Amino acid sequence: MNDGLNDDLNDQLNGSLADNLKAELEKNLRHECDSVNSNTAAAEPEVTNDRTSTTTTTLTLDATTEPAIGSTTNAVSATANAGSHASHTASHARPISARRRLVKLWGQRCLPYLLTLPAFLLVMGFIVYPIGNTFLRSFRDGKTQRFTWDNYRYFFIDPLQRDNFAFTLRIVVATVALAMVLGYGLALYLHFSPSWVSRWLRSLTVVPRFVPGLVATYSLIMVIRDAGVLNRLSRLWGGNFKPGLMYHESGIILMNLWYNIPFVTLIMLASLSALKPASIEAATDIGAGKLLILAKVVLPNTFKEILIATTFIFMGNVGSFTTPFLIGGNHPKMLGIALFDQFNNYVNYERTAALSVIMFLICSLSASFYIVNNLRQRQ
Amino acid sequence: MTEIKVRINHISKVYENGDGIRDIDLEIRNGEILTLLGPSGCGKSTILRCLGGFQGVDSGHILIDGQDVTELPANKRPTSMVFQSYNLWDHMTVYENLAFGLKLRKMAKSKIREKITAMLQLLRMPEVVKKYPSQLSGGQQQRIAIGRSLLLEPSVLLLDEPYSALDAKIRQQMREELKRIQRETGVTVAFVTHDQEEAMALSDRIVVMDKGSIAQIDTPQNIYENPINRYTASFIGEMNFLDQGLDVQAFRPEDATLSAEHGDFLARIDHVSSAGHYGIITLTYQEQPLKIFVDKVALAQYQPHQQVYVTVNKAKTYGAPALTAGKSGA
Question: What residues form the membrane-spanning segments (chain A) (predicted)?
């Protein structure tokens, strides 16, 4: 990794930007040696027509000879005055001095670290440290600061919190299952149907990506609430239809599907387009029907992306906040809201920490499932 | 004497862009290798796809073993197709690939194993049975694909440029291999290619295609010796064309001789080169380029810029310059 990066940087340095700098450095170094003898003698033969310009150059170079190495300001001032010196630098080729090599080596060694340092500090300071801190805090008693399991015990014993877990899992599993089935079906239709409806639908699938989450959620609420669009439409025909979706898990699931079906469809479409038509035609040729081709050829070939989509939807929804906050009821609550309550309303940072770790573990469980499967496929 | 396996009756299939095939009439005999040859876009693959049932026809009928299959889908036809590439299912082993079709036919497991072992024996690659397609070379994959098709005992084996993704040397081996397998199984083969050398080496008969129609059907030898029109003449083998006003005289580079003293006409040598077992001399006559093959021993007596007499021993004459795409039965 590092070597590759070094090489790249080196290439760049040797390229456009560095050409000037290098030439000037070389010039300065040579000048340093020459100055032991006589400056004017060295400069004299190069005077071609403009005497004054040459003298000024010599002067600037002279004044800055010692701190010159690696100093850009000097290089720039020298460039400004160089003029006739361009030919001068090109004509003399001297062995690279030890000092210059040292400078180059230093640059090669340190530059990659310098460049990665900001990102590294950011990650350490804002991700690794808080996570570590949260982890430690989750085992601490808020008053005595002693080690305790109580923060975890609370979430597993308290009936309200257990309801929250069950509620969250139910919603997430339903979302994953429905989004996968519907999204995959849609992707199959979009991929295999040549009709204009399919082309039109395909361009619609990206729309949810462009609508801000809050806006979409409010829009849905306007439609599904008991005095919403659906209700008013039903009144036009003399009915009084109340969808009953608000403050209920089905409303949250419905909203989740709005985001996740297009997500699944996009991933599966990419996967399906990698599937070669000949692979399907060969199966048709051998006598397989459509369902069999789906089971034996299409599904196995898109299995990896199915796993990716499942994992991502699962993880994304375990920690979801906006949708359950706006659509969900008072009890039970999804874990994201429960976490918000612990932090903002009960100001219990130790329990907040414990719940964070639990949610992290749930997510990493599904992530590890994905990684293990991925590794097994590669073998 | 020869039984007709496939009868294609006046089929047409024209795509939206105007490409396709028009009024194709063709018979495939039992146990022969018939090659459909032509440049890309000439409709050769379309004929094959119509035969296999991957492509419907606008009009006409296809009969296989005397049965009209025009309306049957691919999975109901007694044909089996080998595609250019990506034939095998990557997630299945060679064994599973070969067994898939047999399982669909509800064959007993022991019988399947027996047939697959015999097939791998025929393909001379029994060691790959447990491997995945990605562990095989391109040539091996195509051989397994042919085996998979043969296991289903199709009436006609269809091959759609199966070797065009392979390099030249492997391609040559594969041709020999296919001929051997065909001899041993006696299967009827329809083979699509754009490579005239491949068609010449492989086929019992060649169908030369030109812009959606058949230009000529004949044995490789006859097509080479008696190309029916200028198109076939230029497509198969090397041919010199001498424009003579109304007519064009065409002769093969080996059908003319050179002499310093006498001959039909005088031409100037441009270039002398050796192709190993024979020599190639390019000449200019009335500003038209000619190519003539000479014996490697005689090659030394010719130099560039030399004027030599050319004698044409065997020539065909075509009307110029209209390319009349006629049709001919064999």
Answer: 110-131, 167-190, 210-230, 250-270, 306-327, 353-372
The third-level CATH classification (topology) of the domain covering B239-319 is: OB fold (Dihydrolipoamide Acetyltransferase, E2P) (2.40.50)
> Which residues 6+ apart lie within 8 Å of B1 measured at CB?
none
**Omega before residue A159 within 30° of 0, cis:** no
CATH for the stretch A155-378? 1.10.3720.10
* CATH superfamily of the B4-225 domain: P-loop containing nucleotide triphosphate hydrolases (3.40.50.300)
d(C-alpha B190, C-alpha A178), whole Å: 47
What ipTM was reported for this prediction?
0.78
Rounded CA-CA distance A321/A251 in Å is 14
Quick check: helix, strand or coil at residue B23? Answer: strand
- Provide the pLDDT for residue A77: 42
Q: Report CB contact under 8 Å: B75, A284.
A: yes
The closest CB to that of B101, out of A279, A286, A303, belongs to A286
**Mean pLDDT for chain A?**
79
CB B134 within 8 A of CB B90: yes
What's the pLDDT at B320? Answer: 56
Nearest Cα residue in chain B from A298: B89
Between CA A229 and CA A233 the distance in angstroms is 6
Sheet holding B247-251, edge to edge: B240-244, B247-251, B316-319
**Radius of gyration in angstroms for the set of CA atoms belonging to chain B, rounded to a whole number:** 24
Using the Cβ of A290 and the Cβ atoms of chain B, whether some distance falls under 8 Å is answered with: no
Mean pLDDT, chain B, integer: 89
Mutate to test the interface with A, among B49, B90, B103, B150 (most CBs of A within 10 A): B90
A5-35 as b/e: b if 16+ CB within 10 A: eeeebeeebeeeeeebbbbbbbbbbbbbeee
Q: To which residue do tokens 């006046």 refer?
A: B10
Q: Is B273 exposed, middle or buried (0-12, 13-18, 19+ CB in 10 A)?
A: exposed
**Residue A328 Cα to chain centre, angstroms:** 29
Subunit contact A284:B54, Cβ cutoff 8 A = yes
pLDDT per position as a tens digit, B233-272: 888 888 899 887 788 888 999 998 888 888 888 899 999 9
Q: Is the pLDDT of residue B300 over 80?
A: yes
pLDDT classification of B18: cutoffs 50, 70, 90: confident
